[in-house]
Amino acid sequence: MSGSNNDNREVYNIPIPEEESFGKKFRRKFKSDPFVPIGCAVTAGILFSGLGNFTRQASRANSVRSQKLMRARVIAQGITMAFLAYGTFLASWEAKDREADIASGKIESMYITVDKYWIFFLATSC
Predict the structure, then answer these.
(1) pTM check: above 0.85
(2) What are 107's strand-pairing partners?
(3) Residue 93: what pLDDT?
(4) C-alpha span between 87 and 40 (Å, rounded)
């Protein structure tokens, strides 16, 4: 790079990742952990069904049904939270495996310097 003030600067053609749209991000996360959005939808469906039942004319049958729907919502919400915790556990487990692979040499870690900034890349050694 002749003629520039910083002749010791190296230029790398590093692709900048595109910003992910909401739909693409939802599909990616749904593929990795499908039970959480399904559980959220089931919980919301039960909740709105119960709320709709509250607006009906008061009778003994409606109040019993409303109570059953609210109990079902709590159970569905608990199951969804359990799936969310399980997904978080799996993600942390995979991160530990990745760190162990870096330490053992299965995966190389590469540092490239560009204008005093460090960019960390993981490259698989195939």
Answers:
(1) no
(2) 124
(3) 82
(4) 14
Residue 73's contacts (CB-CB under 8 Å, 6 or more residues apart) are: 43, 46, 47, 50
Instruction: Give the integer Cα–Cα distance in Å for 102 and 71.
Output: 47
Distant-in-sequence, close-in-space partners of 114: CB < 8 Å, separation ≥ 6? 10, 11, 12, 14
Tokens of 22: 């909401």
C-alpha distances in Å from residue 42, one per residue of 38, 72, 116 = 6, 10, 50
Quickly list DSSP for 10-31. Answer: ----PPPPPPPPHHHHHHHHHH
Write the pLDDT tens digit of every residue in 36-66: 889 999 999 999 998 888 888 777 778 888 8
With DSSP H G I counted as helix, E B as strand and the rest as coil, what are the percentages for the chain, rounded to 5? Answer: 60, 15, 25
